[in-house]
Design goal:
CATH topology of the largest domain: DNA polymerase, domain 1
Strand content: 15-25%
CATH architecture of the largest domain: Orthogonal Bundle
Largest sheet: 5 strands, mixed, barrel
Distance between the termini: 45 Å
Number of strands: 5
Strand order of the largest sheet: 1-2-3-5-4
Number of domains: 3
Order of helices and strands: EEEHEEHHHHHHHH
Radius of gyration: 17 Å
CATH class of the largest domain: Mainly Alpha
Structural class: alpha+beta
Oligomer: single chain
């Protein structure tokens, strides 16, 4: 089973990347956030891989760090959460933000993910309660929840919602917001992120 790939990034699409390792090209399915943070084509990339075998073959799902992969695996353990829904959740919430949403039973934050309705969002926050979603930022406590670190509200999700309200597609909104946050930093204010996202969209 493949757990990690290190090679040259040859191609990217809206859902997949092609990575060449030792002369072999691997097609890896990734979330929008992951693809938006890929290096330039031809550069080296390291992906943490989760392999899933189906009737039509084996699919590889790639993540830029171990915490994202861990959160993806834990999400897959929730009834009704398939690969697409798990990636959608991680498109709008980092593992740290997801852990905080679970700790505070914030189904609204989880429900912003594409394809995740209110009932599934509620099931996610209930079933993930007490489970370790990442390595360091959240530590299990006696109550079965997590001791939350100081995390600001989800500027990512609010920015995406604002752009969609202006008529931008969800996919374009997410890519533009991720690009803006990569430039401005995670502590950027909502208004600044929206302005930078619109600039990235050429509006």
């Amino acid at each position: 089973m493949i757990g990690r790939l290190r090679g040259l990034l040859l191609e990217t699409t809206d859902e997949e990347v092609l990575v060449e390792c030792g002369g072999v090209g691997y097609v890896v399915r990734c979330g929008i956030r992951t693809i938006a943070n890929m290096p330039e084509l031809g550069a080296e990339v390291i992906l943490h891989i989760e392999s899933q075998t189906r009737e039509d073959g084996t699919r590889l799902y790639g993540f830029l760090n171990k915490d994202e992969r861990k959160a993806y695996v834990v999400l897959q353990g929730v009834q009704g959460v398939g690969p697409k829904a798990a990636l959608s959740v991680l498109d709008i919430l980092t593992p740290q933000q997801l852990a905080q949403a679970v700790a505070h039973e914030d189904k609204t934050a989880v429900g912003r993910a594409n394809g995740v309705g209110p009932k599934l969002a509620q099931r996610i926050v209930i079933e993930l309660k007490g489970k370790v979603l990442m390595s360091a930022e959240f530590a299990p406590i006696a109550s079965g929840g997590y001791a939350p670190a100081a995390v600001t509200p989800t500027v990512n999700g609010e920015s995406v919602a604002a752009l969609m309200g202006l008529g931008v597609s969800e996919q374009q909104s997410r890519i533009a917001v991720d690009t803006a946050l990569k430039t401005l930093g995670p502590e950027a204010e909502l208004a600044a992120v929206i302005r930078a996202s619109l600039k990235a969209l050429g509006k």
